[in-house]
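User: Can you help me understand a structure? I only have the sequence.
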Amino acid sequence: FTDIEGSTRLVRTLGDRYVAVLADHSAHLREAFERHQGEIVDTQGDAFFAAFPSATLAVCAAADAQRALHAHSWPEGGEVRVRIGIHSGHPLRSEGRYFGLDVNRAARICAVGRGGQVLLSHTARDELDDEPEGLYLHDLGTQRLKDFDDPERVYGVEIAGLESPQTALRGEAEQSIPKAVPPAMRLVLADDSVLLREGVARLLVDAGFEVVGQVDNADDLLRRVGFSKPDVAIVDIRMPPTQTDEGLRAAKQIRERYPAVGVLVLSQYVEPGYAMELLAESSEGVGYLLKDRVSDIEEFAAAVRRVGQGGSALDPAVVSQLVGRHRKDDPISSLTNREREVLELMAEGRSNGGIAERMVVTERAVEKHVTSIFHKLGLPQAAEDHRRVLAVLAFLRD
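Assistant: Let's start by predicting it. Here is the structure, written out as tokens:
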């Protein structure tokens, strides 16, 4: 199903010119549908109902339609933004028309979209032959559809070459239905070992993440991050062609070009120098873990989430080696052993609650230690999160 967002406003703005705009819109949709074996079942006003032999053909047609609409020169104030909903099912058919719950579900999925979005039901997504080239699917969470009791998991289609549509669906006030569950955190994985990469992807998907890309080299990683804008890039340090530090170099470029993207580096061995290179500017949205930690999926998933939310996640083995260095004018020499222990756990990216649980003390006791650490390190008054980052950097740097 398709529908123009804000069609009433367009009629008021364009007046008689809306007839020509609607004709151009219809021509683009018909051409895209026909190109992918689509059958136009029905039209009503500016809305289309089309049927396709497969979910893949329907998605490709929707993408071509959005590209054509985006490239068209619309009159001032008359840009046409179309929402498209796709569902795969087994409708009843009579006299060339379709009926049944699957038809209604497709219409409701379209109705929760916004202009420029292409939305898929969980069923349609599962029936795709493969992710079509130049199209990327994003899990937008579960959504209550009007007149349906069970929530529907909805996926958005990102189209290469077009600005990514907003991930928010139409709100409760507009639809009179419960709000959607927040979308999953989006990840890109980079590792030249396909077995490890696929294994990590499966673990993370089962833990509630959405893997929006998998690559096996640094160049493809940078391209994929630039296009998909994930929440976190999980990167192996050693990748082709030299198997030295390509992943680390790519991770640093991601932090420079896309500061909103968290970076979690995985390494086979403890390499403190690489860790410090990654932390040179800030520990916000940065992680450095040994690959062995992946086996503890709860800890690993928690580390990914911390990095995606702007926190840090450093492997205890890395922290231990960094702490063991001998430094002149050590900025933490004034800390007690207990305060030093708290700071080590802060360096791993743990919250006050997580530190309290690990040390088997109250959270209030941890708060007192943290306050004392800030005072002894001479950190200025600032937001709690920012002062924690400064404390960790003071702790780790030479």
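Now, to help you interpret it: The longest helix spans residues 18-35. The CA atoms of residues 281 and 290 lie 21 Å apart. Let me know which part you'd like to focus on.
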